Amino acid sequence: QVQLVESGGGLVQPGGSLRLACAASGMRYNIKAMGWYRQAPGKQRELVAAIESGGSTSYADSVNGRCTISRDNAKNTVHLQMDNLQPEDTAVYYCNLKTGGSGVTTDSWGQGTQVTVSS
Q1: Phi and psi (nearest 5°) for 73?
Q2: Contact 89, 95 (CB under 8 A)
Q3: pLDDT averaged per 10 residues in sequence order, the chain, 119 residues
Q4: Burial of 18 (0-12, 13-18, 19+ CB in 10 A)
Q5: Residues near 7 by beta carbon (within 8 Å), at least 6 away in sequence
Q6: By CB neighbour count within 10 A (0-12 exposed, 13-18 middle, 19+ buried), where does 67 fall?
Q7: d(Cα 36, Cα 97) in Å, to the nearest integer?
Q8: 106 Cβ partners below 8 Å, 6+ apart?
Q9: Which alpha helices (DSSP H) does the chain contain, by range?
Q10: Which of 1, 18, 26, 104 is positioned for an S-S bond with 100, CB 3.0–4.6 A?
């Protein structure tokens, strides 16, 4: 059974930084991608950043230039470095793992970690 263990959330002042980490274990199939989504109160869950197995990355426009996603393949861990955080970045951040073979993709989710940006 896939397990995703997240860490690194917390309270930070505007302009501050946080580094989120997510460690994956229990996979039976190849990892296709890992990423981070977030969900603010009253809003839909949205993609923040993702990194594919080949290393290509994608970012939401709202965080592009302020966030960097990276992955340690040997440890099946993904990190999200977030800089210049703003109050609108406040949300629960969820780690996402996509696994599977050709034509089949399975999503797994972490339990979520709260990020609060406030003075």
Answers
A1: -65, -35
A2: no
A3: 94 98 91 96 97 94 96 93 97 96 89 97
A4: buried
A5: 20, 21, 22, 113
A6: buried
A7: 9
A8: 29, 98, 99, 100
A9: none
A10: 104
